[in-house]
């Protein structure tokens, strides 16, 4: 994605503008340390490229930016649940319009704050009062925090994920490691050697992964460190060929250059009492 070519709607500062991308508004960051774009639709990080380095975030060439369905690629916000445990799948946050709350910048980088609060529409799906804030810090690394607050009077249970799609050179030579000794696949727990390579579809939850998960990408001659917090598992996903072909918003060969490494609360195991907060985070460091 060439973020510098997007039509500008408003200039907010030397480093931050609001731009138009097809049917959605995006916050564009062009800073000496890095460039990035974050969609107000879904509070969705669409791109992040440290200066002098390759893109770290993968975006589908067939992604739909019309503002009516979830965007394929980037970092979708799965909230207030993860997976198909309720409707809609992965929650409503990724298809909701968020508000640009604040932007701050200095010589080291930019912080963007987007917020989502309960409404009649959200309460019809999930009957709770809340405030969700996505904090995106763009420096020579990308640091994303999802802060959930119970603004009501009664407790609720919470799950979710920062569904990060990483840009890689070749899935067949990529290794994801520091994943712990066990994974869950199709609801079944299986032993793990702590790392995985790819020669077929992989869709796993690693409940004992290290705080820092390592993605070795020899095709692009780099290593990505994915540092997670507030999670109880790391989801690793690659759809492989058949599933890529079946999805209209992915090209047939999309699986070759992406892998998802997701900071997740995969089972709605976080309970927030009135006034309490929870922070789910992921940080991407390109080495």
Q: What CATH architecture label applies?
A: Distorted Sandwich
Number of domains: 1
The helix/strand order is EEEEEEEEHEEEEEEEEEEEEHEE
How many beta strands in the DSSP annotation? Answer: 22
CA distance, first residue to last residue: 21 Å
CATH top level is Mainly Beta
Beta-strand percentage?
over 45%
Structural class determined from secondary elements: mainly beta
- Helix coverage percent of residues? under 10%
Number of helices: 2
CATH-assigned fold name:
Beta-galactosidase, Chain A, domain 5
List keywords for this structure.
single chain, 287 residues, mainly beta, Beta-galactosidase, Chain A, domain 5, six-stranded antiparallel sheet, 2 helices, Aldose_1/G6P_1-epimerase, isomerase, isomerase activity
Sum this structure up briefly.
The chain has 287 residues and is mainly beta. The protein has helices at 120-125, 240-246; strands at residues 8-11, 16-21, 24-30, 34-39, 44-50, 77-78, 99-106, 109-117, 130-138, 142-150, 156-162, 165-167, 175-177, 182-185, 188-191, 195-196, 202-206, 212-217, 222-229, 233-238, 258-272, 277-286.
Task: Summarize the topology.
Elements (H helix, E strand, L loop, with lengths): L7 E4 L4 E6 L2 E7 L3 E6 L4 E7 L26 E2 L20 E8 L2 E9 L2 H6 L4 E9 L3 E9 L5 E7 L2 E3 L7 E3 L4 E4 L2 E4 L3 E2 L5 E5 L5 E6 L4 E8 L3 E6 L1 H7 L11 E15 L4 E10 L1
EC number: 5.1.3.15
Catalytic activity: alpha-D-glucose 6-phosphate = beta-D-glucose 6-phosphate
Family: Belongs to the glucose-6-phosphate 1-epimerase family.
């Amino acid at each position: 994605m060439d973020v510098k070519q997007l039509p500008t709607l408003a200039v907010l500062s030397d480093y931050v503008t609001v731009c138009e991308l097809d049917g959605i508004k995006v916050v564009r960051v062009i800073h000496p340390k890095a460039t990035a774009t974050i969609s107000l639709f879904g509070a969705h990080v669409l791109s992040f490229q440290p200066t002098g380095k390759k893109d770290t975030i993968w975006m589908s060439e067939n992604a739909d930016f019309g503002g009516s369905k979830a965007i394929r690629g980037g970092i979708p916000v799965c909230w207030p649940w993860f997976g198909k445990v309720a409707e809609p799948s992965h929650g409503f946050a990724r298809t909701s319009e968020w508000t640009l709350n604040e932007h701050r910048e200095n010589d080291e980088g930019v912080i963007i704050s987007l917020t989502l609060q309960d409404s009649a529409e959200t309460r019809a799906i999930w009957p709770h009062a809340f405030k969700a804030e996505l904090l995106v810090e763009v420096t020579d690394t990308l640091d994303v925090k999802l802060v959930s607050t119970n603004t009501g009077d009664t407790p609720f249970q919470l799950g979710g994920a920062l569904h990060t799609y990483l840009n890689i050179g070749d899935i067949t030579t990529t290794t994801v490691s520091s994943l712990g000794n066990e994974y869950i696949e199709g609801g079944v727990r299986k032993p793990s050697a702590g790392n995985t390579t790819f020669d077929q579809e992989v869709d796993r939850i690693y409940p004992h992964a290290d705080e820092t998960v390592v993605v070795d990408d020899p095709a692009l001659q780099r290593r990505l460190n994915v540092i997670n917090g507030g999670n109880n598992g790391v989801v690793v996903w690659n759809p492989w060929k058949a599933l890529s072909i079946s999805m209209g918003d992915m090209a047939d060969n999309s699986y070759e250059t992406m892998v998802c490494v997701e900071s997740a609360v995969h089972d709605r195991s976080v309970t927030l009492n009135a006034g309490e907060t929870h922070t789910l985070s992921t940080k991407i460091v390109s080495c």
